[in-house]
Amino acid sequence: MTIEVNNESAMEVDEAALQRLAVYALDAMHVSPEAELAILLVDEAAMEQLHVQWMDEPGPTDVLSFPMDELRPGTEDQPSPAGLLGDVVLCPQVAQLQAEKAGHGTQEELQLLTAHGILHLLGFDHAEPAEEREMFSIQRDILVGFALQERRR
User: Fold this and answer.
1) What is the distance between the terminal CA atoms of the chain, rounded to a whole angstrom?
2) What is the 8-class DSSP label of residue 59?
3) How many CB atoms lie within 10 A of CB 80?
4) In angstroms, rounded to a whole number, what is the distance separating the alpha carbons of residues 121 and 25?
5) DSSP E strands, 9-153
6) Which amino acids are annotated as binding site for Zn(2+), given as ranges?
7) Is 65 within 8 Å of 121 (Cβ atoms)?
């Protein structure tokens, strides 16, 4: 699996942990080991520009996902085909503010946003209540499983 993490923000981030989380999430969703994913961390100005350009909404946001080959989750017996999953763009500055409000660390918030962004790349959404329940349940399972794996490291 090829996962590139590029930090163009001014904040220090545990990029290796984000990469490990992405591997864990893609494995959990039975995505082909040949899939490719990019995670980009940008500052507020760059995120605001993307947010306006792609979502027509003002101000920076926490995470944006840009799917490429429209890969979907596979199964244990039939992983998804190989391909370019897409890009997850994170804004650590926005994540830091959200983390403070939520009462946890910025790295935890970035991990949550990474899992969230990957699920969007795999076709999950949260526009409807049933979709939200499904997506957030999978997101929680990924984060809990990853935290357990990290403790064993």
Assistant:
1) 20
2) S
3) 20
4) 12
5) 36-41, 63-67, 84-90
6) 116, 120, 126
7) yes
The answer to whether residues 30 and 80 touch, using CB atoms and an 8 Å cutoff, is: yes
The identity of residue 102, as a single letter, is: A
Average pLDDT for 127-144 = 97
C-alpha 117/C-alpha 122 separation (Å) is 9
Q: Are 150 and 107 in contact (CB under 8 A)?
A: no
Assign 153 a pLDDT band (cuts: 50, 70, 90). confident
Residue 148 has pLDDT above 90, yes or no: yes
Per the structure block, which two tokens stand in for 117?
């962004």
Give the residue among 21, 62, 26, 1 at the shortest CA–CA distance from 144. 21
CA–CA separation, 64 vs 33, rounded Å? Answer: 23
Which residue ranges make up the annotated binding site? 116, 120, 126
Integer Cα distance of 14 and 82 in angstroms? 27
Return the structure tokens found at 120. 């969007």
